[in-house]
Amino acid sequence: MRLILRVIMLAAVVVISTTTAVADPVDSLNETHSDFNESDEFIEEYSALYDSLKDEKLKSLLSKIRIKHEIAEKKAAIADQQEDIANKNRNLVFLSIVAIVAIIFAAVATFFFIKYRRLAKEEHKVRRNRERLLSLISHEIRSPLITLMTSLKMLKNTVDEDDKEVQGVLNNIMSSISNQLQMASNLLSWGKLQIGALPNNKIKFDAVPLIDEAEKLVKEPLANKSISLLHDIPDRHIFVFADRQMLFTILRNLIHNAIKYSNIGENVIVKIRREGDFYAFYVIDTGIGVKPEMADQLFNSTVKSSVGTSGETGVGYGLRICDAFAKQCGGTISLAPEHRINEKGTAFKVTIPAAKTEES
User: Which CATH superfamily is domain 203-353 in?
Assistant: First the structure.
């Protein structure tokens, strides 16, 4: 740039020198040298001015760039703040929706819980009233029968044993009363089972004493028919895991039915065997047996009780109760024809879970 200015200045000097009058050569050289000096000063001033202007422009440019950068940073910061605010608003809306849903759910759950509790209380009250009614009916039926049975036993003890006719009549009456007591117990158990008022209390216990207890309750029918109840139990103690009252009811019903359908002078056998994780309880008689066409319907609700060999009657709930109680205890009940004696009579099999540990 400086070279160009020098050339321009030199050309200007030449033009000026050609247009002026011819002077002294020395004077001309002096003037020319003076002009060159002035042009150098001019160039230096121009360069200084140009540099200052260039610096100002650069400063102005840098200032503009810095301002643009600061503006961009502020815009970015504002955008970030706006994004944060938008995210917070979205989170707030989401949390509000969740809170509303939770409140609605809690309100609905509370409503149904209160309703369920009210219904549960009402159901419990109804069930309790039914239990009381069943217990009252059972008590009103059983109490006079038990009193009558006790009176007949006392009367029988006062009658001469040689008076077979009176003894026979008393035995028949006592057998009928025993049968009625059995039916009352079955009806009470069936009623409680239907309304869900019969708790299932599974425990570990020895099942052998149950047979003796059941035998005491059928003592009169056994005596009236001269039937012996025989035990075929391999161990002194048989520990099972079940509901004690339910298993007792099963054994009592099966033994009672065996006596009912047995002939005078025959035997009823109670046999217990271990079969894997279960104990199998067999009640076997040599009576009239079960008709083949009835074998598959014994535990059906449509089957009615048939009359026993001595005219004993029933209501037909005994085997259905046994079936229901066996299932409640985790076992089964079925016919076991392979265990009949000389292919006569009937053999029932009840499986009950064995206790995990046994005591000898």
Answer: Histidine kinase-like ATPase, C-terminal domain (3.30.565.10)
